[in-house]
Amino acid sequence: MERVNYTLLTEFILMGILYPLRLRMFLFVFFLLIYILTQLGNLLILITVWADPQLHGRPMYIFLGVLSIIDMGISSIIVPRLMMTFTLGIKPIPFGGCVTQLYFYHFLGSTQCFLYTLMAYDRYLAICRPLHYPVLMSAKLSLLLVAGAWVAGSIHGAIQAILTFRLPYCGPNQVDYFFCDIPAVLQLACADTTVNEMVTFVDIGVVVASCFSLILLSYIRIIQAIMRIRTADGRRRAFSTCGAHVTVVTVYYVPCAFIYLRPETNSPLDGAAALFPTAITPFLNPLIYTLRNQEVKLALKRLIGAPRTKSGV
């Protein structure tokens, strides 16, 4: 057989999302504000958890601090590149940059998936096993679980990046998306992608489905335990400790399932759905956890009020 000659790509062009040209400047400023507020909000949560002695040793807030780090990372690898698509001129991303972006997105995204599961398990122990909670979920154990989530996430990200970029890419180089993600990049491969698509579906499907099933099971047990509480005030307090987590899990899982766990389509809704886990959810998480968590709000007040107390004002 005659060998086919081709030139491998050295860069990709991210086409961004469809938008009216008259909104170019508005969208640039909008996502710039989203990015700045995401970084500031998550940094504030991180500082509050670290600085407040009533929070930083408790597993729930260790998980929350790690979630803030992940949100800052996901936002940083996606949103600045998205903003560049709203500026004039073509700004290609190097091949290595595309590999790095895909790896870190799936590394941090899967770690976040595992972390949400740990947070659900933590709430299950706190509500269903309150007397045994200090033994079953210590600060040391929570740190070990977080370390395990990081390791599992890095392995998942490496598998996806290696499988995606082991294929030859010889043109065209226009990625019909706003960042380097598996479905969009595979469309440019100069080889059969059937195996990749199957492995991606199974791998991501197993991670998402298993994590979501464990979260769902935890909350079924939590709801059963709450329903046994006799007072309405007690049930309200128990529900309030879980409300923020349920909200962020819903905002995170629904778009991810829409993007990765369905037959391949080239729908414009893919880009809109991907904005949630990459830009919107990292922005909303600090708001959700501060507005719905009384302990975090009190810790913020203590943190802001501490200088005044020292100065005697």
From TrEMBL:
Lineage, top ranks: Eukaryota, Metazoa, Chordata, Craniata, Vertebrata
PROSITE patterns, sorted: G_PROTEIN_RECEP_F1_2 (PS50262)
Gene: LOC109690949
Top-rank lineage group of the source organism: Eukaryota
Compartments reported by the entry: Cell membrane
Pfam annotation, one family: 7tm_4
The protein, known as: Olfactory receptor 10G3
Keywords of this entry: Cell membrane, G-protein coupled receptor, Membrane, Olfaction, Receptor, Sensory transduction, Transducer, Transmembrane, Transmembrane helix
Membrane topology: Multi-pass membrane protein
Gene Ontology molecular-function annotations: G protein-coupled receptor activity; olfactory receptor activity
Main subcellular localisation: membrane
GO cellular component: plasma membrane
